[in-house]
Amino acid sequence: MPELPEVETTLRGLEPHLLGQRIMDAVIRTPHLRWAIPRQLPIILRGQTIRRLHRRAKYLLIGCDSGTLILHLGMSGSLRMLPVGTPAEHHEHFDLVLANGMLMRLRDPRRFGAVLWHGGDPALHPLLAKLGLEPLEHEFDGEHLYRATRTRSAAIKLVIMDHHLVVGVGNIYANEALFRAGIRPQLAASKLSKPRCARLVQTIRETLTEAIALGGSSLRDFVGSDGEPGYFQQHYWVYGRAGESCRACGTAIKQIKQGQRSSFYCAVCQK
Length: 271
Description:
Blueprint: H1 4-18, E1 23-28, H2 41-45, E2 52-56, E3 59-63, E4 68-72, E5 78-83, E6 92-98, E7 102-107, E8 114-118, H3 142-148, H4 156-160, H5 171-181, H6 194-213, E9 254-258, E10 261-265
Antiparallel strand pairs: 1-6, 2-3, 3-4, 4-8, 5-7, 6-7, 9-10
């Protein structure tokens, strides 16, 4: 599933192609994704200019004259810039057609993505209104994490993956950040000291920033807006490496299940 670094990579790739462009049309080939694409969307979008692109959690927000196009890549989605007239292939469900002769195309084999429209403040949309802090912004710091975990007996990995607390820390990056912080994924969140909370916030930021710089992780179907895969998976410390030697100490990496997701850790490096 594309996580925050993959969505941010996509955003940065799309921005120079979309910002300031006038929309000629929208083409809906498959209306039933995770939620139905609004039937009137082509009428709404024709003639509007793209004024702003930004990301909220794993959502891409394309701000137009009278509202915001809200996109989610689901489990297998990707967005590509292509010349107008490029034939659509299987699983390519939606086009945003621009006046400059280019189009943005959504490919989503599993159809868990979303193309939605919101006419008001996008922060008030039901999908966005209750989201937590962005992990790369200053508001998310060690003090915030420390306060938020004092009464949380759940495992720290599950807590940092809770999008009501902090958004976009998916399974891959939670595993990697916890290794860098020297914290076992199953440790109760309330047992973290202030210094360890501060260290974990730091490693979450470092992990996500490095992943963005490397174009995210290409697992299964993800490619960036230029069609290129991400390369962060070549730098994993623990994720997907069960039974392999820890790159730091040589101990075999362990794998457990937490919340129906796999967790990977080093029993020596992480306490």
